[in-house]
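FORM 7B - TANDEM STRUCTURE REPORT

SECTION 1: FIRST PROTEIN
SEQUENCE AND TOKENS:
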Amino acid sequence: MNFRIKSLDDTLANAERKSLKRSLGAFQLTMMGVGAIIGTGIFVLTAEAAQKAGPGMMLSFIIAGFVCAVAALCYAELASMVPVSGSAYTYSYAVMGEMIAWVVGWALVLEYAVAGGAVSVGWSNYFVGLMDRSLGIDIPEALTKGPFAGGIMNVPAAAIALLVTWLLVIGTRESASVNAVLVIIKVAALSVFVVLTVPMINGDNFQPFAPNGFWDTTGLGIAGAAASIFFAYIGFDAVSTAAEETTNPQRNIPIGLIGSLGICTVFYLVVAAGVIGSIGAQPVLNDVGMAVAPGSAEFAAICAQPQHAQALACSGEPLAFALDMLGWEKVSQVIGLAAFLALPSVILMMLFGQTRIFFVMARDGLLPGADTLTKVHPKFNTPYVVTLITGIAVTAFAAFFPVGVLADIANSGTLFAFLAVSIGVLVLRVREPNRPRPFKTPAVWVVGPLSLLGCGFLFFSLPLATQLTFLYWLIAGLVIYFAYGYWKSPLAKPRA
């Protein structure tokens, strides 16, 4: 097999021929990262973590955050060396070859497009609840759920996906400005939550700390919760996909990556402590005293029982639920409103990352219609064709498919991309040790392997069905690559 590699010099030169407008600074990148990270994970998955790990979710957040931290340090070095859109796809192309790059780019579709569709559906649930509680408007289920969930079409989910697509077409700076406002709203909401819950912490609520143990083949335990909670962190690497639109990327990309991850990790740990310590977070059990996997039919049946009505694990809005339990009903409504306002910023960053990766893959000649896909809007200076195509696809996905296990599927694609980056930073240290590195990963021969092992550990802590789904997805991607990209790539043609 010929692993065709595009050199870093060729990668940078190709980007200059069809480049995007540079308009983003360190603050905007950090806000983009926070906007992409804080969202469905902390507002929704806290309940799932409670069912899987109980109070042990605190350790799950630390494990997932640590894996992201070491991966972020690897990302920062490569992003500062190659300030070009495309994230892990671009890095893999220059380091490990075209076929691996295609597989990584294909895996990133699971991270961005699947997660974008999932968050759109999550936003729809908040929207429906808000309409019911605030205005007394009961939207028929046929219009708020896809056919697999007993409805016809999730109209609100489709609407928010289309709105975000339109915003991205208008312009990157405009999108970033709206995102910054949404970030402030949700950070303020989480701050209020922390202020109200931390003083109510009761140490007894942390016992037993790990009711389901550390690891289980069904996805329960601290490791299983960490693999799911990882969804609460994905998105920080979207900052690196904006490298081509960043001023002074060698300085600002590392700041955006590490700064956003640091802010979010602190928030997650404090919020988790507030939830657990104030109302408790023990998993609900079946008739034989065993915990069951969240999202299953058995779990839904258990949560429908009256004795579990006050269980955190059964709540669809865990943070608002916790405040309700503490008697802060009005504030809980505000938290729900903040989540409703905040989730579009996550959708925005998911679509942003996906469009930029498709843009670069088309520019590299691996997608059909490359000349059309790489068109930049004459007024807005955005890759509007690929943005519209991606937006329509995510809209259809959000309209007709349920959330289900999408978070775990998105995690599988993300972890694979992180694995590629972890290998890439080490390979380049050996292959091109003298190439300028504006940001150098500290203790790279410790951090790199830790990132590699951590990502592998979380991947194999996902449910087996998710791992198999990812395998089938990769096989489909390879079929597409060898049917088109392998033959049409510029690297397939001998140089004059």
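SECTION 2: SECOND PROTEIN
SEQUENCE AND TOKENS:
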Amino acid sequence: MGGLAITAKYVIEAEFEIDGVVEKPDVIGAIFGQTEGLLGNGFNLRELQRLGRLGRIEVSLETSDGKTRGRITIPSNLDRVETAIIAAMIESVDKIGPYNAKIRLSRIVDLREEKRKKIIERAIEILRKWEESIPESREIAEEVIKAVRSAEIIKYGPEKLPAGPDVDRSDTIIVVEGRADVVNLVRHGYRNVIALEGASIPKTIIELSKKKTVIAFVDGDRGGDLILKSLLNQVDVDYIARAPPGKEVEELTAKEIAKCLKNKMTVEEYLESIERTKKIKEERVLEKPIKEPFKLAEIPIIEEVAIPPKVVSLVNELQGTLEGVLFDKEWNEVQRVAVRDLVTTLQNTSDIYAVVFDGIVTQRVVDVAQEKGIKVLVGARVGNVVRKPLELTIFTFADLAEKFE
């Protein structure tokens, strides 16, 4: 494993067999060549290496009986899903040089898990030796542990937000309302937590949400509703967790915290639950069914925008993929991108006319579209959009299905 150029979280290990005699450069060249463009720019191995997301491809091999057998190792700093996709791409290589080849994944090593195991084993050893000489009660030990964890709270970012020590290291962060919430969660072992600490949304939180999975964990009261509304307007939130009705995050027990996080909802599920609740309340007042309270007609539409048939067909292809497609003014496909990377990609791309994606059209997406001069957005659903430029047309998948049926 020597010579890794990145701090890897995982290592992909695969074995191969080739029906002929080849050298290491042949194997590496085949991997780059046969995977290039296979799943779009987001999974270009050379680009991922350049960005420090993948390390060098290491190959060991030996030849016998006219065949070449060996092992491939690739360090990865991607997340679990992306690392699994890279492993599957490597397995798809079926020719090396002029010869047929078979590559099969042996395992994906979680280096962090290995490190955690060693830490746990060492901690157990230390405690056993300690307990032999120093008697202690469980209650005192638990209080000491909680005090130590509380002392681990740091000040994060220019705004010096209260946070746990693992905010930078973790792929996922838990965003809470205040310092007391951070203290409670860190005390119970949740070290990837950070607080808003105020009514406005800190820029640090907005920037973190662009590169990490975000769980918004708020109080089970009206204040929690207001915080969520503000978060969803400005932050790329992935999941929502709520304290039980009438309770605050800072007062929850370890069991209650775990249950709330286990029952977290996606943003889409949360918005749907809000709409269902609103609809039920309105039906009770009117004593008759009403139409869905939110309609696309509430957002001005430029009717002269012409959607080509191929784009209408693309909607069915995209559903359930969490992917998006960028088009130029002639409706030529420019790029495919994962929805979670959509905003970043748009910020770094120019001359895009339309975007069709399997996700929610949020205020953030609308703002970036306006900034980049994009004219058409087509998403699975429309979220809480309160500011929309007149020159931007927004459709949902359902709108297109209805319009072109």
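SECTION 3: OBSERVATIONS ON SECOND PROTEIN
The chain is about 40% helix and 25% strand.
The chain has three domains: 10-110, 136-270, 296-403.

SECTION 4: SIGNATURE
Preparer initials: ____
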